[in-house]
Specification:
315 residues; alpha/beta; Rossmann fold; 7-stranded parallel beta sheet; two-stranded parallel ribbon; 9 helices; globular; binds uridine-5'-diphosphate
Length: 315
């Protein structure tokens, strides 16, 4: 019998981290989930309780990491990730991207584990190139309010490449574009839970600015499948994972109103500082290197997500 592979998922009780933990368990991994629960939640991982292959450690990844036994993969997913969260937690956001990435890379080096960094389309900032390809260096305001997240992730990418080049650590970088699905927090402020919550409650949908800014939304199951394929590949350079179907925020609001059957109206609010005007992943690298592309239709994924939020309301 071959030994099961063992993976550490930092931020494992968060939205993406918990989906990744579940995906790895289904594929026969032993999973250690580490989370300090500042934006993650135990309810996201309660389904894994009692599974002998699953272990939860409540710890801040910026502190010294001690983990006995072998580790084959480290997935570094810990970070506040919604604009509201990282505006409220600016120092923690900078620390987890810098000190937390340093600790997680140090552990990967010590354990000779493959390290995968959850990076972000925010490294492209307010992009001047469209759609965004991995070779674009970005247009980021380092001192703006979003800089705490963008620069932390850019630093994390630089540190990951340094550990790869200097220490020979086997590393991966995924640049995650807007992703949605069950287990997003109802009040994390991101557009998907915000609009669904507002539509279900019959309140106006708060469109920031004139709503002409664009985003491209990927269903969580597609994203996690792509990340898993990336982990198993030999690709050390950054890879965009996201869904290239782009729409304006106003069109997205209208779609949510239609799918929920809501009678909500639309209300415009001030556009946040440095809100990117356009965003769409170029996924040709993921297609070529991983043979990955998204499969779930936006409407299908949104129906699943709406059902999840309806379930929360009934609790
Ligand atoms: N947005 C909006 N209303 C909301 C929340 C967000 O119009 O209640 C807009 C926001 O200005 C941005 C887009 O929706 O242009 C996506 O925002 P989100 O916070 O989901 O993430 P971002 O892509 O900006 O990181």
């Amino acid at each position: 019998m071959t030994e099961k592979k063992r993976a550490l998922v930092t931020g494992g009780a968060g939205f993406l981290g918990s989906h990744l933990c579940g995906y790895l368990l289904e594929r026969g991994f032993r999973v250690v989930c580490m989370d300090n629960l500042i934006t993650g939640a135990v309810r996201n991982i309660e389904a894994f309780a009692g599974n002998d292959d699953f272990k939860f450690i409540k710890q801040d990844v910026t502190e010294y990491l001690f983990l006995p036994g072998p580790i084959d993969f480290i997935f570094h997913f810990a970070s506040p990730a919604s604009p509201i969260d990282y505006l409220e937690l600016p120092i923690q956001t900078l620390k987890v991207g810098s000190l937390g990435t340093h600790k997680a890379l140090g552990l990967a080096k010590a354990k000779e584990a493959t390290f995968l960094l959850a990076s972000t389309s925010e490294v492209y900032g307010d992009p001047l190139v469209h759609p965004q390809k991995e070779d674009y260096w970005g247009n980021v305001n380092p001192i703006g309010p979003r800089g705490v997240y963008d620069e932390a992730k850019r630093f994390a990418e630089a540190l990951t490449m340094a550990y790869h080049r200097f220490h020979g650590v086997d590393t991966r970088i995924v640049r995650i574009f807007n992703t949605f699905g069950p287990r997003m927090r109802a009040r994390d402020g991101r557009v998907v839970p915000a609009f669904i919550g507002q539509a279900l409650a019959g309140r106006p949908l708060t469109v920031f600015g004139d709503g002409s800014q664009t985003r491209s939304f990927c269903y969580v199951a597609d994203l996690i499948a792509g990340i898993y394929q990336l982990a198993l590949s030999g690709e050390n350079g950054p890879v965009n994972i996201g869904n290239p179907r782009e729409m304006t925020v106003l069109q997205f609001a209208e779609l949510i109103i239609r799918l929920t059957g809501s009678s909500s109206s639309i209300e415009h609010r001030a556009l946040p500082v440095d809100d990117p005007k356009i965003r769409q992943p170029d996924i040709s690298k993921a297609k070529a290197v991983l043979g990955w592309e998204p499969r779930v239709e936006l409407e299908t994924g949104l129906r699943e997500t709406i059902e999840y939020f309806q379930g929360l309301e009934l609790e």
